[in-house]
Design goal:
With 159 residues, chain A is of the alpha+beta class. Helices cover 35% and strands 16% of the residues of chain A. The chains are: A alpha+beta (159), B alpha+beta (830).
Amino acid sequence: MTRITVTVDGVEYFDEVEPRMLLVQYLRESLGKVGTVIGCDTSNCGACTVHLDGRSVKSCNVLAVQADGHEVTTIEGLAANGSLHPMQTAFHETHALQCGYCTPGMIMQACDLLKDNPDPSEQEIREGLEGNLCRCTGYHNIVRAVQQAAGAMREGVAS
Amino acid sequence: MTVTDETQTREAPELEIGRARFRKEDERLITGRSRFTDNMQLPGMLHLAMVRSPFAHATITSIDTDAAKAAPGVIAVVTGEDIKDIQGVNANAWPITTDQVTPTHLPVVIDHVACAGEIVAVIAARTEAQARDAIELVDVDYEELPAVLDSKEALKDEVLAHPDLGTNKSAFWQLDSAAQGSGGDVEEAIAKARTDGVVIEREFRQQRLIPAFMEPRSTVVDPTGDQLTVWSATQVPHILRFLIAATTGLPESKLRVVAPDVGGGFGGKLQTTPEEFATIAVARRLGKPCKYTETRSESLLSGHHGRDQWQKLTLSAEKDGTVTGLKVELIADLGAYVAVIGGGIPVLGAWMFNAIYKFPAYQFNCQTVLTNKAWVDAYRGAGRPEATFGIERMMDELAAEVGVDPLEIREQNWITHEEFPFTTVAGMTYDSGNYEAATAKAKELFGYDALRAEQARRRADKDPVQLGIGVSTFTEMCGLAPSRILGSLNYGAGGWEHASIRMLPTGKVEVITGSSAHGQGHHTAWSQIVADRLGVAFEDVEVLHGDTAIAPKGMDTYGSRSLVVGGEAVVRAADKVIEKAKVIAAHLLEASADDLEFSGGRFGVKGTDRGLAIGEVALATFAAHNLPDGVEPSLDSDATYDPVNFSFPHGTHLCAMEVDTETGATSMRSYACVDDVGVIVNPLLVEGQIHGGLVQGISQALWEGAEYDENGTLVTGSFVDYTLPTAADTISFVTDTTVSPSTTNTLGTKGVGEAGTIAATPAVVNAIIDALRPLGIHDIQMPCTPERVWQAIQSASTPPEGEREAAPHFDERAPNQDPPGGSITEGGAQ
């Protein structure tokens, strides 16, 4: 067992974990952060995407011990002060989710995409989300959501 | 924190039906407060892992579990022999003929493995990791048997998937229009066309697909005393409960089945699975809560697959393109077992191959066959996409043969809007539709004429990248289904749906539905329906479902049935509430019930300003201080609705594909569709269903296919190899609707869940073929990968005009497509 210190959604945790434990397993099984879900075992689907020190990672592709000393944000920590993140609002308002299983990863990846490129074209959005699979929406409304959120976030910065 | 926007609040006079309401379901899903089955942890819960057969066909000679039992954290290792008296069976509920050959499908096999991935033993351990670690320690001795993997090979009965059954042929099912009196003799029509008309003969392949819902299946079983609670990622909690009781002997009254948040299904969770039954058996045996969650690889390997047909089609027509007959001969690969409705899925195509066209003679033949592959059952569209693909490809072939535009040949043969209701050659009565209107709108949105002009220019210029335009004017039958029809087809259950409405004393309304949503948005749509019907606020309606203890009656969600059957049950329950409330309101208002009118949620006395809101009546009923004599103090009402007919949505889908004739690469230029799904409750939800459906249909045309190697090993067993499209592979769509209200339900609605998937596949393939037809290419097997397109171009010759073969026939020396198992990318089983 290895001792780790990780800040997850603003709370610092001290834990002992098996060295082979994946970050997503640590989040779900040790911390009960089940909002982050597992959709595959080959890092193709992106359902488990979280932010590690502010950048998106597939948490099935990171060992829990690699998060030692780092800060993790999950879908459960995205809303701040009782207000939804603009990306969450945009997913809701554009009907960018149906079953909702890919949604946590999709939202976290979309936030990361806008961090790099606050005003992406449709093609840039599509390529930026290429690592996240959705089986319900056909991506059409997910693209709309990211466009809406990008607009709202640019306005937020400007005002 | 709330996701309900202030600006969305209800303005009194506006009707809810038709509004693009944002979904009530979203908040927990966008904030990570979801309730998927695998999220559950119960005190003392054990985790299960499955030992699965690596062989497609084998007998088991011994299983040594000692090493696994001694492994850290392992509590038990259970074999099929250990639970043979309690595990039940995975039943087939739809034997399509009385003499159907139906192998017994045990959840955990005992001595015979009929496909790779079957469960041989179950490990229960304290953690999931410990359970999985012990899989390797179970020593199973297999004696490998020859496996039959190709459905045409299987029909020869040389290698048997189940040696004890003596044959691989499961059942033969026929619909003949002459025999049933709904049309003429198809053989006569074809014979006549051979002498003085047009005969088109083709063989198409419907490749095997995997539903690939995003949430892997998971089951939690809690045996508390003599009661058993099962949480499962299922579309069908009620059917599951019934079949557990029916096959394990557990009393139905002791069983509670819950489908919490379910992460997609697309038919893939319309099943009672070996994993569910194994988890139940092990939890009962150990007396402890148990959880099993599959890995993605297990999901692709052992969840049921879809499609997998060979279609031999013969279409006869007059020389001018007027259709005279259609003969369909299907070979449907069921895989190793006849799944819950596996045998019936291809048979649903019987009423759909004739589609929107006025065939005077028709015959449908379906031979189902067993092989040593994963079992096949419903996948989005279930029988209708296969049929729609076949007929829409054939209509394009006919247009090419006659030398007219594909839309023209369709218009020449389709049912005109004046002809509804129309009884088809298959014997179905389509209630309403307007193919002309949907097609006109789609052509305009698509820019059809401009694209045809561009295509002609690029053909003339010999552009290496050719443009193809694909047409699909589909209809489908959904809203499963009138119970009497299901009974006549030997289906094991009815097709009704149930709803209850509870009027709470505070004016809130609870709607209990037997439909079991897994992403469709029922909470939102049912709230809109009830808000209008009862005149209450959208926000005041709560929808409860998916738990047999809360919603005890139901037939669940599949076959685009929820709104047209389940929604109608909700309407009828609401109407009963109004009838009950009217009696009490009349008493309280000291008026005759005949003098009351109910509008906007209020019972008013005609000609006066006196009245009571339905919420006030609910409170007075709760108090029960002043009710008419003999009236019970409740407004709560139930309705069980059995549909009188299927639902027949339709639409026109147009697709433009760019095909690089030098590399075989294809890319979608544009896609426009106009769907007629009757009256729309929520346009946002309808668009979402269409978008998602389209991509699944497009994906069958271009990317997906479950492939087995010559040993029966699934080689597309992960998302690395089973290629779901990403956002970067797809485009934005142009979607619109026309409205021909259904005449068979109160709201005028039609099903929408499967429409996109059913329509899109032939639109895409027709577009690719349209681009390449000048090269003499008239079919490419799906998925139309760049390699297959390139191969088709390479092997195509362009005979001089006038020497072109009129109608290629089923001559093995002149195949009209890739031979089975012949292409480089394809496994031996296909």
